[in-house]
């Protein structure tokens, strides 16, 4: 084992402040936003290819998920009565501002798609809304990665290139899982493929993130985050394999695999959230990478000066 | 910025740890009490900057660095070297040139004033808490019972009427110096030279460089040890510096999601359902 880097701190106190966000609200928001966004893409695909039952079910699922996610976000505000201030300005430097605007466009679109599918009314409007939701959905699923990464939290900012990819892969896994749970077996072949591709992508991206994070990757492997992320990987792989082998033949197998994918995605989000908190609370993860950066710079200056 | 940019130069080499700044800040800004606890770790029972602590005096007790002689402080004091020294430093919001808290605030509650400082508007903040993990120095925080975020305003109300901030006014040793930032930077450079000449070779400035990761601090410091010893980050970077890269990756990720699902439908085939 590599010896742990020595570092100094002020009585072991954290340098930065961890967010006061509740895991249930914000990690839950990441999960639900992903489920909704990627679900809209699957819904549009099913709509286009005549897989009607799945299409309707996924539209309803996306509407429910985005409504719950907005509720979670508002619930987490220190002043929930002031949630409308989120749309007071548009700030591209604030992922939360961009996300609020994105949600305020996506939400009604997802709602229209679901309403039309369930009632059978205004099919043209429903089809247009389905298409629009499928274009906005991936943005909803991806931006939350930026939301987390655009902070001083070492485990999130350090992986700022990987986090959006990790979040969309996890979102796809969740939506594929939902499609396996709610869709008939004769319609679920695309969901099985999507679940498999998402599991592959999620594994590859998580590994890339951990490689880049160096010392900070400990926070992905230890404690609560470690347990959650290991569980996430096991469930996601099991769900993808189960879906591929049983999903097309057996209703119960499809539903169980779908549930595994959904739970796996939730564990991924709660795991990444927990890793971020752990990395903010221990000064090691702020000080060591920054100290190394300073030393590299000084060595560089020394070498060029000599 | 219609006025000259102002700031703080905190010269920790003359800080005596009296905490007059902490008290003056609490009094002037009517900040609520936030716990009267004894930490047991040092004379620092304030512990850190936060929603209800906008000045914080750090106390570090450590072995005297090699080669330093201790001067007798008073007549009759033998000047015997105890082998220990105290470092004291009054920390505050840095009023960063590139302020992450301000960049990420979705409501526009945090804004840049005409004095080049960074201030929260209490009537707009909705307590989303995004500024809290964005600050690379761990300064701003939400007040639990209130929900909104609070931090040093550099006494915006006092600046408006031509007064200096309460903490600087109360400081008996002029450890906290307030003024136009350019002037403070010159004064600080002279002070470092002076200290180096008297043999205090470890004296160095922190946060004075406009080329650093946050574009320089509006409140910068003269330190006698590494920043992390005082609880300061050694190489802070404004997180939004990497935001264009993040948006690019988010765009690519969103497209891969679309592409991946399209591929799944293609692989599944239309006929087989
Ligand atoms: S130190 Fe933190 S709270 Fe103060 S201006 Fe900079 S980013 Fe904002
Ligand atoms: S908590 Fe208030 S000041 Fe901080 S980012 Fe949110 S709205 Fe802005
Ligand atoms: S400038 Fe004013 S608000 Fe800021 S720490 Fe000093 S007294 Fe407090």
TrEMBL record, chain A:
Protein origin, superkingdom: Bacteria
A Pfam family per the record: NrfD
Keyword annotations of the record: Cell membrane, Membrane, Transmembrane, Transmembrane helix
Transmembrane segments: 26-48, 98-118, 125-146, 166-183
Membrane-topology descriptor: Multi-pass membrane protein
Single GO cellular component term: plasma membrane
Gene3D superfamilies, A to Z: Formate dehydrogenase/DMSO reductase domain
Signal peptide: none
Entry similarity comment: Belongs to the NrfD family.
Annotated PANTHER family: PROTEIN NRFD (PTHR34856)
Name of the protein this chain belongs to: Polysulfide reductase
Lineage of the organism: Bacteria, Bacillati, Actinomycetota, Actinomycetes, Kitasatosporales
TrEMBL record, chain B:
Name recorded for this polypeptide: Ferredoxin
Residues binding [4Fe-4S] cluster 4: 105, 125, 128, 131
Cofactor info, note text: Binds 4 [4Fe-4S] clusters per subunit.
Database matches in Pfam families: Fer4_11 (PF13247), Fer4_4 (PF12800)
Residues reported to bind [4Fe-4S] cluster 3: 93, 96, 101, 135
One GO term describing the cellular component: cell envelope
Cofactors named for this entry: [4Fe-4S] cluster
Organism: Streptomyces albiflavescens
PROSITE patterns: 4FE4S_FER_1, 4FE4S_FER_2
Every 4Fe-4S ferredoxin-type domain range: 6-36, 84-115, 116-145
Record-listed [4Fe-4S] cluster 2 binding positions: 25, 152, 155, 167
Keywords: 4Fe-4S, Iron, Iron-sulfur, Membrane, Metal-binding, Repeat, Transmembrane, Transmembrane helix
GO molecular function: 4 iron, 4 sulfur cluster binding; metal ion binding
Subcellular locations according to the entry: Cell envelope
BP GO terms, sorted: cellular respiration; formate oxidation
Transmembrane segment boundaries: 246-268
């Amino acid at each position: 084992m590599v010896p742990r880097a020595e570092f100094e701190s002020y009585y072991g106190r954290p340098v930065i402040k961890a967010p006061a966000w509740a895991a249930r609200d914000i990690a839950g928001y990441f999960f639900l936003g992903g489920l909704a966004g990627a679900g809209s893409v699957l819904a549009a695909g099913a709509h286009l290819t005549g897989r009607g039952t799945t299409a309707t079910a996924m539209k309803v699922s996306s509407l429910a998920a985005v409504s719950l996610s907005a509720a979670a976000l508002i619930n987490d505000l220190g002043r929930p009565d002031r949630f409308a201030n989120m749309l007071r300005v548009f700030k591209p430097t604030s992922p939360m501002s961009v996300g609020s605007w994105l949600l305020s466009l996506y939400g009604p679109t997802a709602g229209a798609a679901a309403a039309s599918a369930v009632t059978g009314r205004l099919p043209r409007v429903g089809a247009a809304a389905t298409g629009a939701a499928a274009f906005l959905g991936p943005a909803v699923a991806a931006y939350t990665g930026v939301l987390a990464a655009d902070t001083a939290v070492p485990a999130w900012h350090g992986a700022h290139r990987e986090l959006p990819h990790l979040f969309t892969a996890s979102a796809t896994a969740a939506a594929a899982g939902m499609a396996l749970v709610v869709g008939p077996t004769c319609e679920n072949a695309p969901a099985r493929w999507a679940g498999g591709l998402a599991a592959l992508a999620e594994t590859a991206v998580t590994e890339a993130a951990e490689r880049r994070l160096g010392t900070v990757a400990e926070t992905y492997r230890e404690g609560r985050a470690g347990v959650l992320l290991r569980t996430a990987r096991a469930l996601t792989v099991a769900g993808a394999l189960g879906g591929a082998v049983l999903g097309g033949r057996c209703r119960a197998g499809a539903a169980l695999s779908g549930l595994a994918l959904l739970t796996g995605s939730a564990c991924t989000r709660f795991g990444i959230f927990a890793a971020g908190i752990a990395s903010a609370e221990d000064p090691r993860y702020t000080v060591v990478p920054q100290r190394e950066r300073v030393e590299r710079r000084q060595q560089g200056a020394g070498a060029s000066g000599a | 910025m219609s006025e000259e940019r102002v700031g703080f130069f905190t010269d920790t080499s003359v800080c005596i740890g009296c905490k007059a700044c902490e008290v003056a800040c609490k009094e002037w800004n009517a900040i609520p009490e936030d716990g009267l606890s004894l930490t047991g770790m040092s004379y620092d029972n304030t512990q850190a900057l936060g929603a209800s602590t906008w000045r914080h005096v750090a106390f570090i007790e450590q072995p005297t660095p090699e080669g330093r002689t201790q001067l007798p402080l008073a007549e009759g004091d033998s000047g015997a070297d105890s082998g220990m020294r105290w470092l004291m430093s009054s920390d505050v919001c840095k009023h960063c040139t590139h302020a992450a808290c301000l960049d990420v605030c979705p409501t526009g509650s945090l804004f840049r004033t005409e004095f080049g400082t960074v201030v929260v508007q209490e009537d707009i903040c909705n307590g989303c808490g995004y500024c809290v993990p964005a600050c690379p120095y761990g300064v701003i925080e939400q007040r639990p019972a209130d929900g909104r975020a609070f931090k040093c305003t550099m006494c915006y109300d006092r600046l408006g009427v031509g007064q200096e901030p309460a903490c600087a006014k109360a400081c008996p040793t002029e450890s906290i110096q307030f003024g136009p930032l350019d002037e403070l930077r010159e004064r600080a450079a002279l002070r470092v030279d002076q200290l180096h000449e008297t043999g205090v070779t470890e004296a160095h400035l922190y946060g004075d460089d406009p080329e650093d990761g946050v574009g320089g601090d509006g409140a910068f410091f003269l330190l006698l040890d590494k920043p992390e010893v005082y609880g300061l980050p050694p190489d802070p970077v404004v997180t939004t510096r990497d935001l264009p890269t993040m948006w690019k990756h988010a765009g690519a990720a969103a497209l891969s999601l679309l592409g991946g699902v399209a591929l799944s439908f293609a692989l599944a085939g239309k006929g087989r359902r």
